[in-house]
């Protein structure tokens, strides 16, 4: 079949490639009115229309392919647009201006090549089948999932961005994951030596093996695993499957066969307006090379797509002049950021470094020789600095007198750059090239909320990394115009969480229905307001979470007072105050775990967690634990979790106070406290800090004169050091101050807001908090203490309460009308303990049958 190009007054425009960049080009063409002059034919090799490759790993975590599709399918239903899926283009006939497919030839007047790139697989003997997998498309991920069935270990060759994403994918498939990298550090393009070392430490702490400076020689049959990888240096490594992510190469097969000029190091050579050596052919994205460079991020590809679309529609556009390759990522749960001249390659550049060896954190700031410009940065472990540093680099904003303050811990750092300091030209969204000025224009054009600004500008609809900054800019611009920024909790309550707390407390409201009737709208509530109000009610009145008026407000974990795990079973977490436990207690936990076949683990919070309990088993398990003297550990709730302690002066020759006794007092006092987010405490018996108190919401460190109190720290994905709040406190003063601070946090924090984020949001910062809590500047302290005492006095173990109420026990059944256990829950044995069996892959033929 041959299709001619020009039909009447319309020309034919062919786009080869339906990836993210090709799709964006079609969007831009339609938006610019291209259908008035072109019929557009889009050819894609895959059977699915364009999808989000940036979040590819989510597919293995349960996200379905349809939800990853970009835009609406209606885009390709416009009259004049034809999408040809599963149709590889075999050849470009430049002489006759035709493309050749297996289904026939298609003539073109203009052609856009958006063929992207392909994974590079080194020529290694023995690499085939499950030892030659790649990580690029949804089909590739299906092949990895199939190869993982019945496997125990997987190896990724390549320690760059995609390699670490692939390693995360293997972990999500319950495989022991290893990364093999030829270079002497991970992410060698983005990170310097120390940044790579910090990233390695964090990734290894997650159980991923890292093997650097390894060149794979060949792959042979293994002895304990399916394959054996041999290296030029170092011991061999055995594995069941191998995923290659050793870099990408521009997909230029069509261009080469067609005789287009290629760049020296690969890629289709283009000019500043994305034209190739043939004036009728454009190239965009990873297949294109500008000034000899290929850009492997989506934002430069989108920029090229906009430029090519403008040129095809005879519109003026800023010429392509290179691209900012800054990246903000979360790899295996670890924050990684690289901005501008991250390696300090600019002549005369100077660097400031902050190194946290204990926490495997690293930050590097690169400034010009005269100290007047920020040139680049490297971040490992905490990307909260990223947006601010990016704006300094992109907009030439002069750094503070001490540039190092930009990367110091939050308590010591210079104030964050406010959005009002950003010029109108500041780029907020790199993917769609949306500036602060464009957001202003959208608001002036009638956009009155964040959703409408997103819809108008497409900001934050690419990789999503700018969402936080976009929200700040929108709210700032709306406020500057006198528009009240709507901070309602949800459509049912036109109040913030703080305002609802005050309403509940002052009005003595004890049920969701009362609050909805008196201060809300509608009759049912939603998934936002119900758990938020449930948390407020629990914080105020400390009623059992299983009370009938609270149960409908809770998520699964609170409803069943246990954390649901990935295979549908639950964890059982008895409280072990301060980590102190008797031999009889240990024996009781061991007996329960053995009787019910539970997986047991000692956690970093000095508890013993039991995993694998089915829903109907929970009451029986807790009956035995409570009989042995244990209480619920509240691991399922936004509440007090643990109070970690060292052994203190009782045993340790360095201890100056009895840290175990104080940890016991603190844990027993606050163990029933519900709050906007989980709370973690620690007490150290001396300044050697074995309990790691300075990374907790409430940290207590002994001195010879009493206790030093540290507040508002946390670990997790955004670590923050706690700040010194008060010194040399006696026991009574310490408890009194903690009472006040926690109740003030509960009263004023937003929903799901950690104490660290709450502290950063307070106007006046730590000094203001000291005035309120230590100096009683608001006259609230007596009230806060009384409210905390009410919570303490009303404490009861939620599981003990539930076990004494037959009505509450009725919900602990896997099936409403059947007492059998769940037949779909399967276990396998590993290291002498049960763990969830890998998800079964259903062959297509079986699924159809």
Write a structural description:
α18 (731-748) crosses α21 (781-793). The chain is α/β, with parallel strands linked by helices and 849 residues long. The longest helix has 18 residues, at 731-748. β29 and β30 form a beta hairpin. It contains 24 helices and 39 strands. The chain folds into five domains: 11-116 and 251-313, FAD/NAD(P)-binding domain, CATH 3.50.50.60; 119-249, 3-Layer(bba) Sandwich (FAD/NAD(P)-binding domain); 327-406, FAD/NAD-linked reductase, C-terminal dimerisation domain (Enolase-like, domain 1), CATH 3.30.390.30; 424-481, BFD-like [2Fe-2S]-binding domain (Arc Repressor Mutant, subunit A, Orthogonal Bundle), CATH 1.10.10.1100; 563-794, Sulfite Reductase Hemoprotein, domain 1 (2-Layer Sandwich), CATH 3.30.413. It has a five-stranded parallel beta sheet with strand order 4-3-2-8-20, covered by helices on one side. A five-stranded parallel beta sheet has the order 10-17-11-12-13.
């Amino acid at each position: 079949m041959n299709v001619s190009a020009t039909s009447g007054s319309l020309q034919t425009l062919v786009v080869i490639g339906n990836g993210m960049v090709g799709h964006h080009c079609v969007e831009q063409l339609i938006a610019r009115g291209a259908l008035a002059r072109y019929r557009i034919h889009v050819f894609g090799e895959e059977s699915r229309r364009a999808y989000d490759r940036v979040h590819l790993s989510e597919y293995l975590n349960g996200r379905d392919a349809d939800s990853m599709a970009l835009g609406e399918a209606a885009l390709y239903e416009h009259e004049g647009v034809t999408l040809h899926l599963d149709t590889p283009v075999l050849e470009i006939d430049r002489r006759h201006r035709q493309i050749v497919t297996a289904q026939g030839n298609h003539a073109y007047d203009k052609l856009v090549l958006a063929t992207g790139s392909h994974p590079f697989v080194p020529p290694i003997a023995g690499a085939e089948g499950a030892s030659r997998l790649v990580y690029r498309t949804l089909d590739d991920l299906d092949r990895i999932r199939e190869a993982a069935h019945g496997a125990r270990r997987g190896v990724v060759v390549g320690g760059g961005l995609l390699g670490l994403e692939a390693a995360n994918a293997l972990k999500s498939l319950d495989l022991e994951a290893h990364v093999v990298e030829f270079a002497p550090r991970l992410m060698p393009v983005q990170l310097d030596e120390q940044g790579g070392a910090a990233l390695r430490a964090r990734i290894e702490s997650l159980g991923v093996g890292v093997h650097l400076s390894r060149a794979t020689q060949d792959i042979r049959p293994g002895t304990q695993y399916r394959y054996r990888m041999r290296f030029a240096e170092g011991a061999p490594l055995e594995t069941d499957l191998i995923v290659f992510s050793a870099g990408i190469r521009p997909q230029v097969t069509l261009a080469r066969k067609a005789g287009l000029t290629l760049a020296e190091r690969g890629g289709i050579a283009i000019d500043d307006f994305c034209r190739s050596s043939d004036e009728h052919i454009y190239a965009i994205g990873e297949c294109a090379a500008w000034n000899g460079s290929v850009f492997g991020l989506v934002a430069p590809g989108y920029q090229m797509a906009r430029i090519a679309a403008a040129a095809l529609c005879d519109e003026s556009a800023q010429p392509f002049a290179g691209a900012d390759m800054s990246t903000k990522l979360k790899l295996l749960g670890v924050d990684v950021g690289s901005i501008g001249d991250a390696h300090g390659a600019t002549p005369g550049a100077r660097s400031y470094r902050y190194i946290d060896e204990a926490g495997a954190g690293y930050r590097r700031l690169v400034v010009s020789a005269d100290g007047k410009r920020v040139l680049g940065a490297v971040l490992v472990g905490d990307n909260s600095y990223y947006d601010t540093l990016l704006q300094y680099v992109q907009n030439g904003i002069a750094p503070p007198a001490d540039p190092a303050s930009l990367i110091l811990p939050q308590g010591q750092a210079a104030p964050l750059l406010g959005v009002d300091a950003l010029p109108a030209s500041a780029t907020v969204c790199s993917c769609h090239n949306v500036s602060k000025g464009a957001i202003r224009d959208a608001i002036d054009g009638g956009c009155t909320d964040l959703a409408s600004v997103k819809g108008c500008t497409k900001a934050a609809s690419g990789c999503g990394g700018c969402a936080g900054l976009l929200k700040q800019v929108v709210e700032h611009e709306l406020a500057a115009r006198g528009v009240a920024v709507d901070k309602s909790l949800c459509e049912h309550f036109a109040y913030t969480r703080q305002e609802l707390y005050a309403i509940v407390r002052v009005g003595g409201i004890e049920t969701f229905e009362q609050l909805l009737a008196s201060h809300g709208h509608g009759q049912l509530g939603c998934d936002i307001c119900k758990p938020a109000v449930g948390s407020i009610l629990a914080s105020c009145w400390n009623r059992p979470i299983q009370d009938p008026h609270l149960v409908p407000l809770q998520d699964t974990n609170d409803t069943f007072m246990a954390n649901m795990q990935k295979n549908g079973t639950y964890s059982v977490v008895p409280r072990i105050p301060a980590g102190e436990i008797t031999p009889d207690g240990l024996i009781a936990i061991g007996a329960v775990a053995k009787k019910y076949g539970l997986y047991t683990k000692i956690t970093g919070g000095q508890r013993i967690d039991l995993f694998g309990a089915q829903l109907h088993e929970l009451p029986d398990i807790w009956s035995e634990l409570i009989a042995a003297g244990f209480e619920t550990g509240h691991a399922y709730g936004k509440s007090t979790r643990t109070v970690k302690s060292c052994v203190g002066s009782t045993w340790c020759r360095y201890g100056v106070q009895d840290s175990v006794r104080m940890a016991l007092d603190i844990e027993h006092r606050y163990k029933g406290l519900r709050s906007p987010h989980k709370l973690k405490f620690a007490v150290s018996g001396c300044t050697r800090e074995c309990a790691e108190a300075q990374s907790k919401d409430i940290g207590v460190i002994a001195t010879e004169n009493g206790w030093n109190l540290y507040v508002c720290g946390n670990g997790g994905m955004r670590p923050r050091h706690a700040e010194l709040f008060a010194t040399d406190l006696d026991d009574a003063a310490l408890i009194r101050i903690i009472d006040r601070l926690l109740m003030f946090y509960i009263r004023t924090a937003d929903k799901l807001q950690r104490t660290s984020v709450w502290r950063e949001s307070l106007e006046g910062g730590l000094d203001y908090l000291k005035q309120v809590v230590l100096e009683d500047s608001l006259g609230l302290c007596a009230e806060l203490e009384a409210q905390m005492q009410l919570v303490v006095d009303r404490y009861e173990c939620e599981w003990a309460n539930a076990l004494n109420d037959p009505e509450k026990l009725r919900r602990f059944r896997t099936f409403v009308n059947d007492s059998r256990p769940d037949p779909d829950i399967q276990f396998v044995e590993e290291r002498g303990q049960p763990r969830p069996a890998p998800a079964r892959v259903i062959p297509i033929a079986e699924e159809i049958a």
